[in-house]
Give the backbone structure.
Amino acid sequence: MNIYDVIAETSLAGNELTDEQAMAVLDCPDDELLLLLHAAYKVRRNFYGNKVKLNMIINTKSGLCPENCGYCAQSIVSQAPIEKYSMMKKDEIVTGAARAAELNAGTYCIVASGRGPASRELDIVVDAVKEIKDKHKGMTVCACLGILKPEQAERLKEAGVDRYNHNINTSSNHHQNITTSHTYDDRVNTVEMAKASGISPCSGVIVGMKESKEDVVHMARSLKVLDADSIPVNFLHAVDGTPLQGTDELTPRYCLKVLCLFRFINPTKEIRISGGREVNLRSLQPFGLYPANSIFIGDYLTTEGQEGSQDWKMLEDMGFEVDLEPLNRETAKALT
Ligand code: SF4
């Protein structure tokens, strides 16, 4: 049994990886990468078989954000030439859900820029979600509207929101290097608030923002403590005009090692290869689905994704299937 098989056994047994094991994953020599992927796939297959969840994002409000997140093209400090618009109308959000259904996306993610939703914005989302849940039975609706107040979380839950996304983004140690307009704890508190309202928590990270490998291990462990059901792993696609412009420290092989680490530390959770998939994993994208079991289909918030048909082709070529099961917090049960 090689070291990665031992790590897979540790993960499958529900035990914590040691610091040495976690670093061995990120430091895996490139000529052992297939061994690592094979071990991570054993864990993924145990909980998710060959199913892949598809998620589609709609950016309902773009730019105009007073926060200063260094990676974000929509922030107040960004000079990136993105399209800026205020909150869409309810009907546009509902129409987006029909598009998600066409793309076989089981989860529709309603995202808005900003520190948190204004009451008019929340009203629009609440009305849209009610209509979407009525028209598309079984579709999982995720909202991502920034920092929430408890009563706002309650309203989203009542409207039918299944999941709430608020990323921790990076480690608690590195957070102040990425943004100073809100704290790491603000982010964690919103995830906890969504959970307290009975909404499934989604929280993830952005890798490639000049953090250390120890920070990456810390992020994966923090999400385990938070018990995030869904973990989007973004790989920085540094947009010109943002403070992180020109940052390009990832290789496709390192991205795969990061995905394996997240799978081992969060074995039962939905691990999603998120923003930056195409530009960072490049020709190795399909290999990412050995540790991960979820991807976005369509475009990201301010950058384009590849054509949905290419994603379907990738899944078909790999012998993977789209998972259309609706969200269920208890779904991640061992298949074997
Ligand atoms: S990540 Fe969100 S909060 Fe931060 S600047 Fe972008 S839109 Fe604003």
Summary: The beta strands are 51-61, 107-112, 140-144, 163-165, 200-202, 205-207, 230-235, 270-273, 294-296, 321-322. The pocket of iron/sulfur cluster is lined by residues 65, 67, 69, 72, 74-75, 113-115, 146 (CB under 6 Å).
